[in-house]
Write a structure and sequence with these properties.
582 residues; alpha+beta; seven-stranded antiparallel beta sheet; 23 strands
Length: 582
């Protein structure tokens, strides 16, 4: 190795050491002994700020997200949510996405602008793992228990102010000190390499004398004697300091090599991100419950309370708007029928209960619609209710969709765990079942028709409700005799079906059957008298041709897995809806 090349290497090693030493000491002073790093940014336009998993889930530890409104006395709202839900609710609206950290640019959060237009009402949605709001600086702490995570930040005036994210990792301070030590070791190695010099052995004095030969002339006898002596006496080389490199050079080279080896060992062979504990955020599992058990329970309690209050409101624009905000589907239609027949005060009784609902199942997956299955014990009636709650899209909160009292003695088979989620089953999906939910609802409705029920070997009609209904139909027909004919039609409403898969493969089905009781005057009957209980509903006390009474029958059916029994009724409620005469 040439001396100049060796000195170039020494300089390079020393410079690298100086860089590592300076960088390590700078990081140590920035992070402190706690290893705490804070990154900041300030949005440059209106719209939400979305903190992505690339920021929140690349380290094993808590991330403290702080934000405030750009307006000095403005309020700020923050919500922790699954990344897929964050993408859904922000959509194409204007937002600033935080995508990473940058130390080189001054402890800042990397970001990019996306979308355009006003954001939706984030707070109204039922997708959040945690929320916080208020004036001044607000803080939300994201741990890694539910990773991956996203945080959405919004301000009431549209412009979010400064945002900071702080993460603490004690190992960083230690690593910064080690980096400085490695740098010092490299500086020392460079110095040692610079001071060492190459040794080039020089010939000894005896070797030089042999190479040069005898100096000057002599007589032949003297030459012969000297030559003989030379042949019999070997040359003994005399040590010469110039024969090898200085004794300290080898030691310096060994020390330098040891220092370089130590530096390489301390630096390690892993990538920088791995040494710092940084890793890729975990992938989101799309086949689990989208809500935690606690969040689902809070939603069920809130909705039932709001539904109970809305039921007591007058039948006017304000009352109707309040009910529409909390009821949907069969529950909404049932409430309208109750209000039309009985008024607001009586209608509220159907939603009054003493116990909080218990969530039994959460629909699986991150798509919409999403549904909850719950049960409530009404201690005043000593009656169990089954309920379903529905969120039709990401910006729509959950609303009460069904509330049906269970038959005495009816039980619901086990469901999958809340965390795993429960599969929603389509109305026409009969995979693995004795029949599809739609077919089961139609079959049960047909079996209750009169006077020509349609029997089905896969449907059980010996439950207490069917038995009583069939008995009353027979009595009603016998009471009319020849004065009028009596017929009952039962029509299923497939669009009202909501079905949840149970743990054993069976399905619990919420459905609705519309029932019409028609009495038609006989040939010799001049007038039909409307029973007093139905006169207000029909609008008259007598009719000349026919009287029709319409009712709603929200039901809950159990559709078993193929080969595991018959379809049977778990719950039902009847509600008069309307009447007519001719």
């Amino acid at each position: 190795m040439a001396l100049n090349a060796k000195r170039v290497i020494a300089v390079l090693v020393a410079l690298a050491g100086l860089v590592l030493t300076g960088g390590g000491l700078w990081l140590a002073t920035q992070l402190g002994t706690s290893g705490s790093a804070s990154f900041t940014m300030t949005p440059t336009r209106n719209g939400a700020v979305v903190v992505t998993p690339d920021v929140l889930n690349r380290l094993d530890g808590d991330f403290v997200v702080r934000a405030e409104s750009a307006k000095s006395d403005g309020a700020v709202w923050m919500g922790e949510v699954a990344p897929s839900d964050a993408d859904l609710i922000v959509g194409e609206t204007g937002a600033t996405r935080l995508t990473g950290f940058s130390v080189r640019d001054g402890w800042v959060l990397r970001h990019k602008l996306v979308g355009a237009g006003e954001n939706p009402d984030f707070a109204a949605a039922d997708i959040w793992r945690a929320t916080i709001s208020g004036k001044g600086s607000q803080t939300i702490v994201v741990d890694q228990a539910s990773a991956p995570d996203a945080v959405i930040i919004a301000a009431e005036d549209g412009r979010v102010g400064p945002v900071s994210i702080t993460v603490e990792r004690k190992a960083w301070f230690v690593q910064a000190i080690i980096t400085a030590v490695v740098g010092l070791a490299l500086v020392l190695a460079g110095i040692l390499l610079w001071r060492s010099r190459l040794g080039s052995p020089r010939p000894t004095a005896s070797k030089r004398a042999s190479a040069e030969g005898p100096a000057g002339g002599s007589d032949s006898s003297g030459d012969s004697q000297d030559a003989g002596a030379a042949k019999t006496t070997p040359d003994v080389p005399t040590p010469d300091d110039s024969e090898a490199a200085p004794p300290s050079t080898g030691r310096r080279l060994r020390v330098g090599g040891a220092v370089l080896l130590t530096a390489a060992t301390l630096a390690g062979c892993s990538p920088t991100e791995s040494i710092a504990g940084i890793h890729a955020p975990p992938a989101e599992n799309m086949k689990v419950a989208p809500l935690s058990a606690d969040a689902a329970a809070d939603i069920a309690v809130r909705v039932t309370q709001e539904a109970g209050m809305a039921a007591t409101m007058a039948v006017d624009d304000a009352g109707n708007a309040a009910r529409d905000a909390v009821l949907v589907g069969t529950a909404s239609e049932l409430m309208k029928a109750r209000l039309a027949v009985s008024g607001a005060t009586t209608a509220s009784a159907g939603l009054t209960k003493s116990d909080a609902p218990k969530v039994l199942a959460i629909s699986q997956g991150k798509t919409f619609p999403r549904a909850l299955l719950a049960t409530t014990l009404d201690t005043s009636e000593n009656r169990q209710y089954l309920e379903s709650f529905l969120s039709s899209e990401v910006t729509t909160p959950f609303r009460l969709e069904n509330r049906v009292p269970m038959l005495p003695g009816a039980t619901l088979p086990a469901l999958p765990s809340l965390a795993a989620g429960t599969q929603l089953v389509g109305a026409d999906d009969g995979d693995g079942l004795v029949m599809s939910p739609k077919a089961a609802l139609e079959a049960y409705a047909g079996a209750l028709a009169y006077p020509s029920p349609v029997a089905n070997d896969s449907v059980e009609t010996s439950d207490s409700f069917a038995t009583l209904l069939q008995s009353n139909q027979t009595k009603q027909a016998e009471g009319l005799g020849s004065l009028a004919s009596y017929a009952v039609t039962q029509t299923s409403v497939p669009e009202a079906i909501r079905a949840f898969r149970l743990a054993d493969g069976s399905v619990v089905v919420f459905g609705r059957i519309d029932r019409s009781d028609m009495m038609t005057a006989g040939e010799n009957t001049k007038e039909l008298t409307v029973p007093e209980a139905y006169q207000k509903l029909v609008g008259t006390a007598t009719a000349t041709t026919s009287v029709t009474i319409n009712s709603m029958q929200p039901v809950v059916l159990l559709v078993p897995a193929d080969g595991k029994g018959k379809v049977k009724l778990l719950g039902v409620i009847e509600q008069l809806a309307s009447g007519s005469s001719s």
